[in-house]
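explain this.
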Amino acid sequence: MSTKREQIIQLVKEYYREEFESKKKDFEPGDKISYGGRFFNDEEMCALVDSSLDFWLTTGRYAARFEKEMAQFLNVRFCSLTNSGSSANLLAFMTLTSPKLGDRRIKRGDEVITVAAGFPTTVTPVIQFGAVPVFVDVTIPGYNIDVTKLEDAFSDKTKAVMVAHTLGNPFDIAAVKQFCDKHGLWLIEDNCDALGSRYFIDGEWKYTGTIGDIGTSSFYPPHHMTMGEGGALYTNNLQLKRIIESFRDWGRDCYCNSGKDDTCKRRFTQQFGELPLGYDHKYVYSHFGYNLKVTDMQAAIGCAQLQKLPAIIDARKQNWKYLREKLSVYGNKLILPEPTENSDPSWFGFVINVKPDAGFTRNEIVDYLEKNGIQTRMLFAGNLIKHPCFDEMRTKKEGYRVCGDLTNTDAIMSDVFWIGVYPGMTRKMLDFMIEKIGEFCHAR
């Protein structure tokens, strides 16, 4: 490292201490308690500045390092960075539409089993492509797909299951995987809320997102780790990895790394489509792709965050456990969350379900908590098909299918909210949240 670079990095450390560390203060009642937030120190800022001094800007050395280290952490063969978790879901789904997959490719009109009680971009790519999401209900208090509904949802058009691990709680992967294997279906695990969650399957603990065909992550600030924006996909399948990166990188057929040429040693000797023999492989496009790469500056932040990930996971688990123990006395009014059997969740949030006979509504307790500075969130869409984006499809009664009823999904829409467990929460913050929830419950 050059002397000037060292001086700049040292100044960044000093800046962090002056502008961030020295201004930290203990929580006092009346201070806002966010449901999530950035968890960082000078290491992330130094990595960011170090990357900017290269002025490479696009995907580069930090991105390559992150992909390697993330794959090692998850114990998978391949990790591919992208610019958001939503882009990761888009790429995961579009990968399964590739003609390179032959008869297993998803075509327009094919069906994908999913849930309506989740985040919209788990479903959006299916609809935008022209495939048909098939919605099944979820369970309470797990808030994940009801695996007893899978066979009823299956048809001769079903090609995949694409669902999330809700708020870090793994869905019943064993049952879903068995169903997919039985019918020859793809499985996409939306792992954006569950980085670091584990599930015991086939005699060993595995990280969620690594058990299906493709897993996805988000690095938006409230998530387990952040790049500001950013996301990733991971798989053990080389063919899927190459298709993912083709769709991510303009749809190109070439898989050379940025700045590299002729990895295949056949750059000017191949025949593609109706192009002339020997057309430059770097400019051959096998998919209608996008440009969804991440910048190296974002990846640099991610490399620093990845070193903190084990501690972040542990803090989230401990905060969730503390809330669960202390709030258990209100079980007569609130349905508290339960981890899935054979799972070890890395929690994104603490979900609270107001019982019908509680004496108050979800909206009333949420209003009380928000007025006391405690930030809350709904369980994402609640019931996605009730939203305005579905108005036209509901009117025409086309574009999606519902298997059975969505009783629990509707209950989530009406009665459920969640609060945070992120590592920046102190014991004083947790105690204040517990106190205010108890105060409200006792008053009713």
Remarks:
- Residues 331 and 355 are 9 Å apart (CA to CA).
- The chain has a mean pLDDT of 96.
- The first strand starts at residue 78 and ends at 82.
- The longest helix spans residues 296-327.
